[in-house]
Design brief:
Order of helices and strands: EEHEHEHHH
Strand order of the largest sheet: 1-2-3-4
Distance between the termini: 55 Å
Helix content: 25-40%
Shape: globular
Largest sheet: 4 strands, parallel
Number of helices: 5
Number of strands: 4
Length: about 160
């Protein structure tokens, strides 16, 4: 069988996306990398969300949980992808996006899988259960019943 790189692409970029299993956000686990410049929820022909529980953050999280490195822009709240080496964050300019797509699609499969593993761990931090747990620890801290949680930055 032929070796190839594929991307789960959000938007209208002319990249091939493999057919197969897609999650609720239209992300294929068969892809090597996820590109979402806008990180918007998939919508039907009338503009309504296909999944009413979808949030813009959950699209990136879904890609991370699928084990895919994510490519996004600096206009999203996902700078942590760069910090955790779980994806790419670039300026929302054509040249930058073309360059990073070429880099990602030419990357070694082992590198992409490792980035995907780091991304999957990162994605679990944004699960509702994790967020709820963090909120409880913040309230406990505010009430003087515990140490400052890691999710609260020092000033």
């Amino acid at each position: 069988s032929a070796s190839f790189r594929s991307a789960a692409v959000q938007g209208t970029l002319p990249l091939w996306v493999p057919l197969g299993q897609f999650n609720a956000y239209g992300i294929s686990a068969a892809a090597d990398v996820y590109f979402g410049a806008r990180l918007a929820c998939p919508r039907d022909e009338n503009g309504a969300k296909k999944d009413p529980t979808c949030t813009e953050l959950s699209v990136a999280q879904a890609a991370l949980l699928a084990g895919l490195p994510v490519i996004t822009t600096t206009r999203t709240p996902w700078g942590v992808l760069r910090d955790r080496d779980a994806g790419w964050v670039v300026e929302p300019e054509t040249d930058a996006l073309v360059t990073v797509l070429r880099e990602a699609l030419a990357a070694d499969g082992a590198l992409l899988r490792e980035m995907g593993r780091r991304g999957e761990a990162l994605g679990r931090n944004y699960a509702p259960e994790a967020i709820a747990g963090q909120l409880v620890t913040v309230y406990e801290w505010l009430l003087g019943r515990g140490a400052r949680p890691e999710c609260v930055a020092e000033f």
